[in-house]
Amino acid sequence: MATRYDSSKNGLGYSSRAKTASAMMALLLQHAPAAANEDVCALFHTETDMVSQTLYMHQEDVSHELVFPRIYFEDAWDRRDDQIHEAQLFRVMIDDFSPVTRSETAGLLKSRPARFMTFVIHDLVGLDRLTEIVLSDAAPQAKRGLSDFQVTSADYGLQSFAPFGGQTMYRDVFVKFDTAGIVQTVISCGQAGDVLNPSCTQDFRTEDIDVRINYARAHLPEWSVIEGKIERFLSCARGASDTRDE
Asked: How many CA atoms lie within 13 A of 127 on its CB side?
């Protein structure tokens, strides 16, 4: 007797998988990689629905007036004009800065390495002090701050830290110094093999605002490009505020 193939059960399974694949493809097409020269401020020019915000940096007692396209925000509080924030989170695609919603995040994370990032504008300690804090987390055995580490050249125009005395580094730490030896950027990354998809946290300062970025470690070679895009994005937010006040 010929074996009978039960297509109904397998059909249901196939249908479910097909719907998932279809949704994933639609999401990836929606956030397809942009051209290299894509303007990260495009939505500042095409969106008419804008929101004005004040970023208050309490450690410096300084306020910054900023204007963003409202489409970048999901929460009602963030979408209201003239609110004062001590921090603001953005979730965007790395290439063109198109906004990413919470519901899209899970789907994008399946396309590893995910081509999106989050960044927060806020108020932190100075970058020199922050570097010491980051190093103390990465190598808890080192007790004397920067004097416990030697600085060596690394890839992508960065410098890396290695502890004297053979202490274990639990994260990789990179910095970018200016010509005067002042820290301009500090990056802390999970190590390959410790987790399936290690990420990096990058801190820098632009427009007199402290910025913290989080992205997949696979995008570390793009650290400078990513930083430049955020600098441009915040410059547009400052410029939009100036235009609205005229």
From this structure: 23
Q: Taking the mean position of all CA atoms in its chain, how far away is CA 214? A: 4
pTM as predicted = 0.81
Render pLDDT for 10-68 as a digit per residue (tens, 0 to 9).
444 445 454 444 444 444 444 444 444 578 999 999 888 999 999 999 999 999 999 99
Distance CA 131, CA 125 (A): 10
d(CA 229, CA 90): 13
Scanning the structure block, which residue is given the tokens 């050249």? 153
- Kindly report the backbone phi and psi dihedral angles of residue 37, in degrees, each rounded to the nearest multiple of 5, phi listed first: -100, 20
Task: Examine residue 99 and say whether the peptide bond preceding it is cis (omega within 30 degrees of 0).
Answer: no
